Amino acid sequence: MKTEIRVKRDESLPRSAFLLAFDLRKERLANRGELGYLLRAAALAELLVAGNLADDAGMARAVIAPVDPGPLQAAVWEQISNSPPRSWRQWIRKDRAEAFRLVRDELEAARLIRVERRRVLLFPVERITPRRPYLSRKLAERVSRAALGGRPVGRLDQDVRILAALAAAARLKIMPPEREQRHHGRRRIEQLSEPVEPVATALRKAVQAAHASEG
Length: 215
Fold this sequence. Notes:
Elements (H helix, E strand, L loop, with lengths): L12 H8 L1 E2 L4 E2 L2 H18 L3 E4 L2 E4 L8 H11 L4 E2 H6 L2 H14 L3 E8 L2 E8 L2 H16 L9 H12 L8 H16 L3 H18 L1
Antiparallel strand pairs: 1-2, 3-4, 4-5, 6-7
């Protein structure tokens, strides 16, 4: 039987994924190009493990509406429940800028990040910094430890397990180098990904395709 989890609003996967993307040494967001993919994937993963969505032959299928979802989770659910079947990868690629805005605004309202807006040569520019850097640091340490091993996967907190799987798929800078994952941790990442395997696989492919197009 599939085990469902309920994630508290202030500990939601998209919010945690956003906080995980900060480079605290440079006091800025890292992996900005991948962050939209990661946030969409985090929302899909949260809905999947909660039983709101199901995997139907590689397609995301709406099952039951979430209770008190975050802004991004609500938007993703609305899109899927009112659309023909589409692949997880298509849903990850959709509306990434909007996903960024929704989670950014949610964290700003919760006073977990500071957003400074100004104009440079008539173009809007924003600087985003964490108000509580220790939260990002602690989260990054937990996710990195989960990816590197040591503690059995089954004993990890479900949210940390999923974040580690998604962070690896999105190639976040906090994760071990890919060569290290290939030689020492590929099986570990596969185990971490099991609860959200279709989402993690789709995220990895979406990020790979984006990097290939840039190259």
